[in-house]
Design brief:
By secondary structure, the protein is an all-alpha fold. It has helices spanning 3-22, 25-41, 51-70, 91-99, 103-114, 119-126, 130-147. It contains 7 helices and no strands.
Length: 149
């Protein structure tokens, strides 16, 4: 696979992911460009056939780095979670709680619960064990449940 083929194949998917992580188009545009620029500079990927996970890992790391640099809460205005309003909990309450998660847990939550990736894929993207991915998602879910009570 060439870099051009990689870009064509994954550009929309990666953009959608960074949009969900960042919450706004301006930051998503920056993260998208940073991701593919880093991928281009590091070409070829370390393992052939694993380009998708490699791009997700780069995008996640870029989002984490951006969060560390800015130290601000990332808005998730475009995050579409299927969460019915019940027991007085609104979608806005849930978005606020997701916003408060640490970036690594937020990334694991978005990958697993919003985008529907398997734990193995989440682990591959985040560069951790499958057990650590499960733990991050579980911890995120625990914090979300506590936050919306």
């Amino acid at each position: 696979m060439t870099f051009g083929e990689l870009l064509e194949r994954f550009e929309r998917e990666i953009f959608a992911y960074v949009l969900r992580l960042s919450g706004n188009r301006v930051d998503a545009d920056d993260l998208y460009q940073d991701t593919f620029l880093a991928a281009f500079r590091s070409w070829p990927p370390p393992r052939a056939g694993n380009e998708r996970a490699w791009l997700y890992r780069i995008a996640t790391n870029k989002a984490i780095d951006r969060g560390r640099r800015s130290r601000r809460i990332v808005p998730l205005a475009d995050l579409r979670l299927a969460a019915p309003e019940r027991d007085g909990v609104t979608l806005m309450d849930l978005k606020t709680a997701v916003r408060a998660l640490p970036t690594g847990q937020r990334a694991a939550f978005v990958l697993r619960k919003v985008e529907g990736h398997s734990y193995a894929e989440v682990a591959d993207v985040l560069g951790c064990s499958e057990e650590a991915a499960r733990s991050r998602v579980a911890e995120a879910m625990k914090k979300l449940k506590e936050a919306v009570r």
